[in-house]
Design a protein that fits this description.
This protein has 99 residues and is mainly alpha-helical. It has a domain at 7-69: 434 Repressor (Amino-terminal Domain) (Orthogonal Bundle), CATH 1.10.260.40. It is built from 6 helices and no strands. It has helices spanning 7-26, 31-38, 42-51, 56-66, 69-75, 82-87. The longest helix has 20 residues, at 7-26. The two termini are 23 Å apart.
């Protein structure tokens, strides 16, 4: 059950959507051309750009075309967090089980 979107997540969705739309306009790429290059439909792209809603795969397709894919990938690297750097020397379990 998904429930309501937490406020920080909704804020991030809007910010990312705004950033992608600004990048599209700065690069002077039409919505139609960006959708074609990302291999997604125009309505799907508009939903991503206007609402920040869509699948992770489609978001990554758009990010790749606009030149953000490496940055998105790097931003999820656990070693880029203080806790991740602290725990880098520890053995990481393959699974985490409920206690």
């Amino acid at each position: 059950m998904a429930g309501r979107t937490p406020i920080p997540v909704a804020r991030a969705e809007r910010t990312i959507a705004s950033n992608l739309e600004l990048a599209r306009r700065q690069q002077r790429i039409t919505v139609e051309l960006l959708a074609e290059r990302a291999n997604i439909s125009v309505p799907t792209l508009r939903r991503i750009l206007n609402e920040g809603k869509g699948s992770l795969e489609n978001f990554l397709r758009v990010a790749r075309i606009l030149g953000f894919l490496d940055g998105v990938t790097a931003s999820t690297d656990p070693l880029n967090t203080p806790l991740g750097r602290i725990r880098a020397e520890e053995d990481v379990p393959k699974r985490v089980r409920r206690i």
